[in-house]
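Hi there,

I know you've been waiting on this one. I reran it after we fixed the sequence typo, so this is the corrected version. Both the input and the resulting structure follow.
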Amino acid sequence: MTGRHLAPRRRPVHVSAAAIAWGLPGPPSTTRPSGGVSSAHEPSWYGHPNTLAKAGARHGSYVLAAHSLGGAYARRFLQLFPDEVAGVVYLDSFAHEEWDIHHTDERLRLKPQPVPGALMLRLITLLSRGLYRKMFAAWPGEVRDALIARHLTVDAQRAGALERSNQHQWGEKLMGAGPVPGKPAVMLTAPGIDAALRLTMPKRLLQEMTEGKIRMHRAMAASVAHGEHRVLAGAKHSTIGTDCPDEVVRAIFDLWRRVR
């Protein structure tokens, strides 16, 4: 999403993993054994809603826009501060406590993922250059260049790999912390397939993953008051915000008008 999409509007809060968007890098993995959702080691912005205000959000009830792994963070924030959240827009997000219910193939279940070594991370960084330039091509130059430079470092890629390495624990931690409050939500599904997944997964398995994701998002929308599910036909998972910026912004402010 570019400035022209959000400038006339009240700012929502975007929740993403450490290596997505401008996401701040998380603490070292040795201090965050539970993937960021244990009671003892929360991501720093969970400490108090005032932390969000430092990022420019107004104090009060937030509409969270949660992309990918940020879905787990948003759901944990809901558990900790339910009165601070008016609703959530899930941008092709993972609901880790729901994923395995809707993905029965063992190959699709959430499992530990190894963190690549320094050499592989350097290679991934080099290969990502074209993706980021294409993703942010429409953004203002000073913002685009700073964002791309931030991503094209081994540290940024390592942060993302660490985030993904223990996803299998997140569902257990979320379920162990009690129910996630059923706030109004819009579920946005990106049915397109990221290029990296096309290279590493069979076509049929990718189809099953997408179908399971649609079932999960549909069920999540049906489980809350004023829940809605939308499929963005032109979007891929990693680039949903730049593939369909108008649809994403429309969903955020449709929900905002519904809950204000």
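Quick highlight: The longest helix spans residues 203-222.

Best,
R. S.
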